[in-house]
Amino acid sequence: MTMFKLAEKPVFDLPTVLLTGFDAFGGDAVNPSWLVAQALDGQTIAGHRVVAAQLPTEFSASALRLVALVRQHRPALVLCLGLAGSRSSLSLERIAINVQDARIADNAGAQPIDVPVVPGGPAAYFSTLPIKAMQQAMVQHGVAATISQTAGTFVCNHVFYALMHHLQSGRRGGFIHVPYLPHQGQPHMTLDDMVLGIRAACACALTTQHDITHGAGALS
Ligand code: PCA
Q1: Distance (Å, rounded) from C-alpha 143 to C-alpha 89?
Q2: What would the pLDDT profile of 58-90 be if each residue is shown by its tens digit?
Q3: 79 with 130: CB under 8 angstroms?
Q4: pLDDT score for 1
Q5: How much distance in Å is there from the Cα of 177 to the middle of ligand 1?
Q6: Residue 217 pLDDT
């Protein structure tokens, strides 16, 4: 009589979500974007396994690492997170632009000014995530979330643009900025709130084919 039992479907057979955060930069001790990604690493969301990875806050090295991760994991969805210390909510980025204009040097000392991310590439790419539906899902979970019309011109925009350039084949991807943590001076949102919001955002992206129409524009 055989002693073998049929194994349950191993979790590593699940399709993956690649979730990235950045290392600390600009004098901060921690980067909450990485803490959020790390907290969700290995979790299952809507039948997908989360693979978290840290990107260096460096022009070019960050995008090279991201593209290598996408090739390695072949994720169904890629969501990159970064810190925007001036924001007070989770910001779903709508657009990545083909320019780098660094106000401070990156972690490798590079400070490109008015240089394209991809020479000859299109001026911009839109996120291919259902950002309005994701915003609504995050708010329904009690987490403050907004649509952002600019991811800036530093390393986050660089990674977002490089991601969308690489994913042109149709795989879905996008970018969300997170605010500082309470101990860094932002009083409204805890790490648990951020993790809850990003989890809800991933679940929504994985289960929503067509975005909703929902006003979230800006006058300036
Ligand atoms: N935020 C920076 C780069 C790394 C990060 O977490 C940005 O918004 O460009």
Answers
A1: 8
A2: 999 999 999 999 999 999 999 999 999 999 999
A3: no
A4: 46
A5: 8
A6: 84
Give, for 20, the enclosing helix (H) or strand (E). strand 16-22
In the block, tokens 């049929």 appear at 6
Side chain identity at 112, as an amino acid letter?
A: P
Nearest to 100 by CA among 109, 85, 111, 91: 111
User: Model confidence over 157-216: pLDDT tens digits?
Assistant: 999 999 999 998 678 999 999 999 999 998 889 999 999 999 999 999 999 999 989 888
Cβ density class 28-52: b for 16+ within 10 Å, e for less: eeebbbbbbbebbeebebeebbbbb
Mean pLDDT for the chain overall: 94
Whether ligand 1 lies within 6 angstroms of the CB of 154 is answered as yes
Torsions phi, psi of 153, nearest 5?
Answer: -130, 20
DSSP 8-class letter at 6: P
CA of 176 to the centre of ligand 1 (A): 10
Among 38, 31, 36, which Cα is nearest to 57's? 31
Q: What is the DSSP letter of 144?
A: -
In single-letter form, the type of residue at position 133 comes to A
Smallest Cα–Cα separation from 205: which of 70, 93, 78?
Answer: 78
C-alpha to C-alpha distance for 44 and 191, rounded to whole angstroms:
19
Q: Is the CB of 96 under 6 A from ligand 1?
A: no
